[in-house]
Automatic annotation (TrEMBL):
Gene Ontology terms, MF aspect: 3-oxoacyl-[acyl-carrier-protein] reductase (NADPH) activity
Keywords assigned by UniProt, alphabetized: NADP, Oxidoreductase
Pfam families registered for this protein in UniProt: adh_short_C2
Function: Catalyzes the NADPH-dependent reduction of beta-ketoacyl-ACP substrates to beta-hydroxyacyl-ACP products, the first reductive step in the elongation cycle of fatty acid biosynthesis.
The name this protein goes by in its record: 3-oxoacyl-[acyl-carrier-protein] reductase FabG
InterPro entries, per the entry: NAD(P)-bd_dom_sf, Sc_DH/Rdtase_CS, SDR_fam
Transmembrane segment boundaries: none
Statement: the UniProt record of this protein carries the keyword NADP: yes
Catalytic reaction equation(s): a (3R)-hydroxyacyl-[ACP] + NADP(+) = a 3-oxoacyl-[ACP] + NADPH + H(+)
Species this chain originates from: Natronospirillum operosum
Family: Belongs to the short-chain dehydrogenases/reductases (SDR) family.
């Protein structure tokens, strides 16, 4: 596929974001790899894409900062062209604990990155994609989580709450911009083999819990990327306000 389209994937220096950036590039997208702190990892993803014949650039930006997000999008405008696809993947997960042990500072930090980041990036994307603004439409794919349904009790209800907010934002925004040529959908991954679990203090969490998954295994980032790719392209042209749960049956 040669789309000649432009995609921003936030938080794409590792895990699901990195796999998504690579897959979009293999399908003809010019991709902006966004990261907040690990420049080396982001550049490695870019280099892999270029080595495979794709087109990619790297932009550092904290998605919870309105100024950083504005700079991210203006840089893409100047260097890659009009935005076609936004994948709101950036998110953080803190150490496992019960709610009474979660500080106000931690809760706000999770909400700022996971929810405010999605809001700020979507706002900038709509300015560029909306047919009301002279755009040609586009697709926004939000990365939520099955935690939005499970609540993640005794581990990280703050993270789960942030993903519940993403689900509501996805549905509401999809209805708001449907007539402007923009589709908004979400994926809700289950237990996936990524580095994020180490941030929660248990790097082998997927292995510990995989017996509870109907398919008896954890997922791979590449499997989530395939769902995101479908939602990002015209193959899902009549799909908006919808959710795909690549979770092995959870």
């Amino acid at each position: 596929m040669d789309t000649n389209q432009v995609a921003i994937v936030t938080g794409s220096s590792r895990g699901i974001g990195a796999s998504t950036a690579k897959l979009l590039a293999r399908n003809g997208f010019s991709v902006c790899i966004n990261y907040v702190s690990d420049a080396g990892a982001a550049k490695s993803v870019r280099d892999q894409i270029i080595a495979d014949g794709g087109h990619a650039m790297v932009v550092q930006a904290d998605v919870s900062s309105a100024d950083d997000v504005a700079r991210l999008f203006s840089t893409v405008d100047a260097e890659l062209g009009r935005l076609s696809v936004l994948v709101n993947n950036a998110g953080i997960l803190m150490t496992q604990c019960r709610l009474e042990d979660i500080s106000e500072e931690r809760f706000l930090q999770v909400l700022k990155t996971n929810v405010m980041g999605c809001f700020l990036c979507s706002k900038e994307a709509i300015k560029r994609m909306s047919t009301d603004n002279g755009g040609t439409g586009g697709a926004i794919v939000n990365v939520s989580s099955v935690a939005a349904r499970s609540g993640s009790p005794n581990e990280y209800v703050d993270y789960a709450a942030s993903k519940g907010a993403i689900d509501t934002l996805t549905r509401g925004l999809a209805l708001e911009v449907a007539a402007q040529g923009i589709r908004v959908n979400a994926v809700r991954p289950g237990l996936i083999h990524t580095e994020m679990h180490a941030s929660g203090g248990e790097s082998n969490r997927v292995d510990r819990l995989q017996s509870k998954i109907p398919m008896q295994r954890g997922g791979q980032p590449e499997e989530i990327a395939e769902a995101i790719l479908w939602l990002a392209t015209d193959k899902s042209s009549f799909v908006t306000g919808s959710f795909i749960d690549p979770s092995g049956g959870l």
